Amino acid sequence: MRLRLLREYSQKSSSSQRTCRPSRSHGLYPDAARDAHIWTSPAEEAISTAEPSGHGRVAAWVYSEAFVPEDEVLLRARERAAELGTPAVLPGVGAVLRVLAAATGARAVVEVGTGAGVAALWLLRGMPLDGQLTTIDREVEHQRAARVAFAEDGVAPQRTRIIPGRPGDVLPRLTDAAYDLVLVASDPLSYPEYVDEALRLLRPGGVLAVDGALLRDRVADPARRDELTTVVREVGRALRADDRVLPAMLPSGDGLLLAVRR
Ligand SMILES: C[S@@+](CC[C@H](N)C(=O)[O-])C[C@H]1O[C@@H](n2cnc3c(N)ncnc32)[C@H](O)[C@@H]1O
Q1: Which of 73, 80, 121, 244 has the fewest CB within 10 Å, making it most exposed?
Q2: 86 CB under 6 A from ligand 1?
Q3: How many A from CA of 190 to the centre of ligand 1?
Q4: Taken in order 203, 204, 207, 210, is the CA torsion positive or negative?
Q5: Residue-level pLDDT at 31
Q6: Ligand 1 atom nearest to 142, measured from its CA
Q7: Cβ(231)–Cβ(191) under 8 Å?
Q8: Is 115 near ligand 1, meaning CB less than 6 Å away?
C-alpha cells in the first residue's frame, strides 16, 4: 500500500515540481489572474515560507495518507474496487470523512458514487448507529461489491439505502435540507450538477465533501485548460464565491474540497 502511494506520489511530485513551484517574485501562477488572490502577498509569502522541501512534502503526504491505517475489511473492499477497475478514496480522505461524520453527528448522509464501498465504510464508522447512508451509483456491480463490504463490517441493513441509478435522476428526489453530510465522488464532469443538488440537500451546518478536487494536480496547474480540469476547477471557484457556504481545500488524497452550509 505504502509503496503504491509512494509511487503515485512520486509522479505527482515530479509534475508539481515542473509546474507548481512558488516564486516569491512572480507568484505561483503569474498568468492566473482569476486565482490571483491566493498567490499574492501576504498569502503567497506565508505559503512559500511554510512550504517544506520537495522530499519533505512527499514524506508528509505519504505519512498523512497512512496515518490512520486501514483494517482488513477496508483493504478487502479496496481490492474489490481495484478488481472492478473503479477508484476509491485514499485512506487519508477516508479518515477525514470519518471525522466529519462523527463531528457533525451525521445521521443522514448521501454519497454520490458508491464504488465498492470504501468511502461508505469510513463514513458509516463515523456515523451514529441509528444513522443512514444513502448511496447512489449507476453500476449495480459496484454496489454489489459494496454490499459485500458492508456485510463483512457487520453493518445493519437499515443503516444503508443503496440506490441504483444515475445520480442526476436520483438526487432531485431527495428531500431539501434533510442531510448532514454529502460526499460527491463520481463523474467529475457532473460535479457542478451534483454540488448544486448537495447544497439543496444539506441542512444548515451540514458539510459537502467533493473527492478528486485536485485531479492529480491538474486543477492547480493553470496551463491545464481541458474540459475536465476546467469543470472541476470551476466547482472550487464557485464554492469560494458562494455566500451560502464556507469552503476549504484539503490536499488529502487527490484533493478533498469541503464546504459547510451556513
Ligand atoms: C470514484 S468511484 C466512487 C468511489 C467511492 N465513493 C469510494 O471512495 O469508495 C465512482 C463511481 O461513480 C460511478 N460513475 C458514474 N459515472 C461515472 C463517470 N463518468 N466517471 C466515473 N465514475 C462514474 C462509477 O460507477 C463508480 O462506481
Answers
A1: 244
A2: yes
A3: 11
A4: positive
A5: 40
A6: 27
A7: yes
A8: yes
Q: What is the ipTM of this complex?
A: 0.95
Mapped onto helix, strand or coil, the DSSP state of residue 16 is: helix
Phi, psi values for residue 162, rounded to 5°: -100, 110
**Measured in angstroms, how far is the CA atom of residue 232 from the centroid of ligand 1?**
15
CA of 145 to the centre of ligand 1 (A): 13
Residue 233 has, within 13 A of its CA and on its CB side, a CA count of: 18
Cis peptide bond upstream of 22, omega within 30:
no
Question: pTM score, two decimals?
Answer: 0.87
Give 163-214 pLDDT, tens digit per residue.
999 999 999 999 999 999 999 999 999 999 999 999 999 999 999 999 999 9
184 lines ligand 1 (CB under 6 A): no
**3.40.50.300, 3.40.50.150, 3.90.226.10, 3.40.1400.10: CATH of 86-261:** 3.40.50.150
Is pLDDT at 115 greater than 60 in this prediction? yes
Q: Provide the residue ranges of all domains of the chain, joining segments of one domain with +.
A: 2-65, 86-261
E strands within the chain? 108-112, 132-137, 160-164, 179-184, 202-211, 245-250, 256-261
Whether ligand 1 lies within 6 angstroms of the CB of 139 is answered as: yes
Taking the CA of residue 138 as reference, the ligand 1 atom at the shortest distance is 25
Ligand 1 atom with least separation from CA of 120: 9
